[in-house]
Amino acid sequence: MHERPQVESLLAIARDAGALIKTMQRQVSLSVKSDGTVVTEADISAHNLIVKALARLTPAIAIISEEYPLSENDKILKNAMDFWLIDPLDVTANYAAGGNTYSINIALVRAGVPVLGVLFFPGLEELYYTGDDGKAYKQTGKDPARTIHVSPVQAGVKTAAVRPHDHATHIPVSENTLKVIFTRGQRRACLVASGEATFCSERSGFRIWDSAATYAIVHAAGGSIRKENGDMLSYNTSFELPAYFVGHPDLLSHLHAVKAGETTEEPVTPKKRKNA
Questions:
Q1: 31 strand-pairing partners
Q2: Are the CB atoms for 200 and 50 separated by under 8 Å?
Q3: 170 by DSSP, 3-state: which?
Q4: CA 181-216-82 angle, 5° bins
Q5: Is 174's pLDDT higher than 50?
Q6: Contacts for 73-76 with beta carbons within 8 Å, 24 or more apart?
Q7: For 11-15, 102-106, 118-122, 166-170, which range has the lowest pLDDT when averaged over its residues?
Q8: 52 to 43, 48, 62, 63, 108: CA distances (angstroms)
Q9: Nearest CA-CA partner of 181 in 193, 173, 170, 166
Q10: Which residue blocks in 194-248 are alpha helix, DSSP H?
Q11: pTM of the model
Q12: What is the pLDDT of residue 180?
């Protein structure tokens, strides 16, 4: 097993990549990859920066990136016990449209479980990460970082984070009991980790580099990410993730019992992944 690097080194990498892509957002040109997802020069530039920095920091740990060929990633997924899992620019469509909810996702995976995570939203100046002490943290702008925790289960109104274009009807509780926060990408789960939202329900369609950092952060914040049947997610068996819930473990123990037929779960096509 490889040694776990200190998180401050990873935060510096995320900040450097964030500064780079924020500058490049002034002029963006989109192209479409073979899998139907969109990509920009900023995706590639951030990929190169992060990969080089991680290779210097932990030369013995392999790296899986969204911007590597799938065949190259697949070899690592099948053969490596430990690996870095990165999405150098998540929610590219939002980035290209001049939005601010795109992110840089960096995670360390061991035996299929993300054990360290950094999520940086340069446009919002929000940084979420797992500390060297095993706790979860959020830092906004230049304010001091603070520890974050998922909200406990409480009676009354619950808060859900959902996609901007969605209704809350795919969430398996009565919509009348919900206060809904509309946001994009991995920020939904980050709001759960920080206690600003009670839970979120994600459809199938994410890939492992999208949510691995989130997984580590949510669990460090005392929360859980589970499949609809209550099983744990695995980050070393497939690139595709099934639908899953994010929230307090006590809440998820109830949600996973909801029958699949009672939700409006629909798969997300590859072209929609970056719009999530």
A1: 39
A2: no
A3: helix
A4: 145
A5: yes
A6: 73/239, 74/239
A7: 166-170
A8: 14, 6, 12, 10, 16
A9: 166
A10: 208-220
A11: 0.87
A12: 78
Tokens of 210: 């999208």
Q: Answer whether 5's CB lies under 8 Å from 57's CB.
A: yes
DSSP 67-121: TS-HHHHHHHHHH-SEEEEEEEEESHHHHHTT-S--EEEEEEEETTEEEEEEEEE
Count Cβ neighbours within 10 Å for each residue of 144-179 and write b for 16 or more, e otherwise.
eeeebebbebeeeebbbbbbeebebebbbbeeeebe
Task: Look at the block and give the residue holding tokens 């969204």.
Answer: 66
For the chain, the first-to-last Cα distance in angstroms comes to 34
Q: Which residues contact 226 (CB under 8 A, 6 or more apart)?
A: 232, 233, 244, 245, 252, 256
Rounded CA gap, 119 and 102, in Å?
Answer: 10
Summarised one tens digit per residue, pLDDT across range 183-219 is 889 999 999 999 998 888 888 889 999 999 999 999 9
Work out the average pLDDT over 139-165.
Answer: 84
